[in-house]
Amino acid sequence: MTSTLTVPFFRIPAVGVFLAATVACCQAADPLDWPNWRGPNYDNTSQETNLPESWDPAGGEGSNLLWKNAELAGRSTPIVMSGRLYTLVRDQPGTATEGEKVVCADAATGEVLWEHRFNVYLSDVPDTRVGWSSVVGDPETGRVYANGVSGYFCCLEGDTGKPVWERSLHEELGLLSTYGGRTNFPLIYKDTVITSAVVIGWGDTPQWSLLAKPAHRFMAFDKATGELRWLSGTTLIPEDTTYSTPALARINDQDVLVFGSGDGKVWSFKAATGEHVWSYPLSRRGLNVSPVVGPNGWVYSGQSEENVVGATMGAVVAIDGTKQGDLELGDEEWILPQEMVGKSSPLLIDGRLYTITDTAKMNIFDAKTGKQVGKRTLGRAMRGTPVYADGKIYTCTNEGMFYILKPSRRGVDVLQRERLGGEEVNASPIVSHGRVYLTTSEQLYCIADKSAEAPHQQHDSHTLAEPAPVVDRQVTHIQLSPWDVLMKPGDTQEYTVRFFNAKGDEIVDPQGGPELEFSVAGPGSTRSMSEAHGCVYAAPTDAQHECALITCKYGELTASARVRVVPPLPWEFTFDSRRDVPLTWVGGRIRYNLREDESGNQYLAKPVELPTRPGAPTTKLGTRSRMWMGSPELSNYTVQADIQMKTGVAGESSGPAPEFPVETSSSAIKLPSAGLINSCYTFTLFGPNGEARLYSWCTHDRRSQATVPMEFSPDKWYTMKLKVQPDEPAGVAYVSAKVWPRDEDEPSEWTMEITDKAPNYSGSPGMFGDSKDAEFYVDNLSVTPN
């Protein structure tokens, strides 16, 4: 059975040290399931026994190969829950209709049960990096959640694949999807599902949480509805996108997320609220390793980028996770520089830390002292993380060298070394119900000893129990949700207030506290809901691309939530009466400026450099970007704008971003690229290439697209027009684009047209631009229904 999605949008005393353990859910789960790629305890270990010590990928009698399936091949690590295996893979690779899909298979046989397909759109990711993330399962509900490589985020029924809710995180919140393809992994915490990304949203001042400036930010959604509960970020202007999966642990009697961030720091957040607990600077670049938490609360992580101090690269570190605040170099328990552990996450077994470098060298350290106790060369490159179960370590190098290792006093003994010929491995092995699963570029293998006794757990540490009653009922933090919404004029939105103590435990019904007070900064009004802890916000009927901030006060505590109010089509922006770029535009402010020419005409400009932090140099990062203006539910409309290209400016400056471009010699002339976005399709004038292109997935050379050679003159106004007509009964979208000199009549013929058989039926209007070498200007921007 196949479920296909072509319209991606949202429907809908002294400090004590306690055992770091998996956070409890409300309902018992099968202790043999593997509901997220790191396992039930977020540490890539299992208590299962009776697992195989050898296998043969060719199959046959005595091979211990239960099954293999090429349909499930890829780079994603699978999960197993309730007898089903779930994974992310490419759909129809190398074709004009390629996309991404969640696949569900019978965990015992490998038979595919259902698929949920969705498009890759508005992303620079290459097709070979599709399926980077992993599905996560919710044992309480049986549902699964997937984070697509381009920003599509969904909740699916685990038995059928039917969508429960969907969100387009780049169009709605400004998720950054890049050529590197690095995509984060969602996880379940109680009644929320949490994921992260570098986010460049709307709001350029502290009042709006500075979301228009990039940061690695975590987003917690109500797992039942998709409503955004909270959003919390790390340092502004990070160097990288990353894919470090948080360890979900209980340290100091509070539930925390411990992760590596795009800013090069290891962080600890309160899992229920996103409040910062501590951070530690490990690298100048982003961190991809997923930390592991020991039973004493120590956190172990690694990196293979530039170190914070000096000219060396790489490190393995141990941090006391019971600390608080902004830690510094020297606050760690121990650190080993020049250990290039940047992709494979560490494994903690019986007081020893097992690490594998990017070049597939296993090094084993005493977890308390950092002293090396063993080593072994495994291969040439490593991407996945080993798994430990039944006294054995299962791991596979990037070039396909599979190992079964047994920890020993002096390191590890090799039980099996098997080459998987011609198969690339980016995924990690997992263990569930007596079976070991491994995904490669060619197959997904299921390995099991058929003659072994039924698998069992040595103890019930993975059984999820009822959380302990909350004893401390002093409220120290309040939360107002949904945290961010997009509304139409005249709409209403209900808000809920949640209360938390200093440990991050929710206090369901606080008694005897102060009254809740609600207020609005901006258009609209609120009224309290007497029957619940919350309020109702009403947007004004005449609102025009405006924003409001809803604030709740509870004694000295405050919480806020953001609102954008955007009217129905048509829209027209001449910019002459505006004081700034519309605040409602996701990725708009900072990346675009409002300018005025000598005649008093105002227009938008996309600058060649962007501000970073006060007193810091400007940067080229972000000069190639997308911007979205409204709801991803909009459909069947046309976008039009006037565009003028300027000539190039090269290099970075150490001062503020220039107001106007400087003059350049004719030999150094460079042009920018400027484009319109309509329903997940982009029409771009590529100045450096001398061509106009129409596409939905820019880096895919076979996906439906069109290209026309074209010369562009700098300092000349052109008019661009992009029209998308969805035809759901026919299963296609008709996409048409044209461009002409503004001082000439509009031509009757379209410059290029495509009929997309893997259509996007809806999406937010917006713009694309690349101004790293030269600016471009925008005027007379309109969006009209067809």
TrEMBL record:
It holds the Pfam family PQQ_2. Coiled coil: none annotated. The lineage of its organism: Bacteria, Pseudomonadati, Planctomycetota, Planctomycetia, Pirellulales. Residues 100-372 form the Pyrrolo-quinoline quinone repeat domain. Residues 1-28 form the signal peptide. Keywords: Signal. The keyword Signal applies. Residues 39-58 are annotated as: Disordered. InterPro entries: PQQ_b-propeller_rpt, PQQ_rpt_dom, Quinoprotein_ADH-like_sf, WD40/YVTN_repeat-like_dom_sf. This is Outer membrane biogenesis protein BamB. Residues 42-52 have a biased composition (Polar residues).
